[in-house]
Amino acid sequence: MRTLADVVGHLGESGKTAILDATAIRVRRPARVTDGRDRFVSGKSKQNATKAMVLTDAAGRLLFCGETRPGACPDITQARESGLVGLLDTGPCVEVLADAGYQGLGGQTGGQVVTPPHRKSRTNPPPWYEEIHTQAKHAHPSRRIRVEHGIAHLKNWRCLARHHGRREQLPETVQAVAALVSHQQSATRPLTHAA
């Protein structure tokens, strides 16, 4: 889908769950004279990168890929700047699964963004609390692993594994590859008949 508003509208009509994550795409190092050169250095991978926001459905099919930002931008800031929080707050009620990088969005969206549970009691927790926390901690990643599969389909394209072109053209490249991957995922395969 072309915009986040289209994705939220589709999820509201279908009642499906979306999975949210961001992926870093390695880019060429900006020239030494470039202002804001450090904005592209990712704090996690320590490489020059640009982040793209990815939304998939529960089966791992790509719904949206875009809203690129420099690599130093935190995931939660990227979601806020893209307008996703406002769309979820004013739009239909949907469920969006996200990782720990998005903790805090649940309160801003009325609980529509679901993140891993916080560990509330660190000193001498009762045994029943540890058991419940462990189950919840393992259940959440098992539900959102499909977004990693969707990102892997994107990264199979060499131009998104490492982008050698101009950084200014990367958003169009991301959109084009996402459209091709989405078309490939939605294409019906012919049935093979057993002889």
Describe the structure.
By secondary structure, the protein is α/β, with parallel strands linked by helices. The chain has a single domain (4-186), classed as Nucleotidyltransferase, domain 5 (2-Layer Sandwich). It contains eight helices and five strands. The protein has a five-stranded mixed β-sheet with strand order 3-2-1-4-5, with helices on both faces. The termini are far apart.
Compile the SSE list and pairings.
Layout lengths: L3 H11 L2 E10 L22 E9 L4 E9 L4 H7 L2 H7 L4 E3 L7 H4 L4 E2 L12 H18 L1 H10 L2 H4 L8 H17 L9
Parallel strand pairs: 1-4, 4-5
Antiparallel strand pairs: 1-2, 2-3
Describe the structure concisely for a colleague:
The protein is an alpha/beta fold.
Number of helical elements = 8
Give me the Rg, rounded: 19 Å
List low-confidence stretches.
none
The major β-sheet equals: 5 strands, mixed
* CATH architecture title: 2-Layer Sandwich
**What fraction of residues sit in β-strands?**
15-25%
Indicate the CATH class: Alpha Beta
Quantity of strands, as a count: 5
- Class by alpha and beta content: alpha/beta
Compressed to H and E, one letter per element, the order equals: HEEEHHEHEHHHH
Overall geometry comes to globular
Number of domains: 1
Fraction of residues in helix: 40-55%
Could you tell me how far the N terminus lies from the C terminus, measured between alpha carbons in angstroms?
A: 40 Å
By CATH, the topology is: Nucleotidyltransferase, domain 5
The strand order across the widest sheet is: 3-2-1-4-5
Arithmetic mean pLDDT: 87
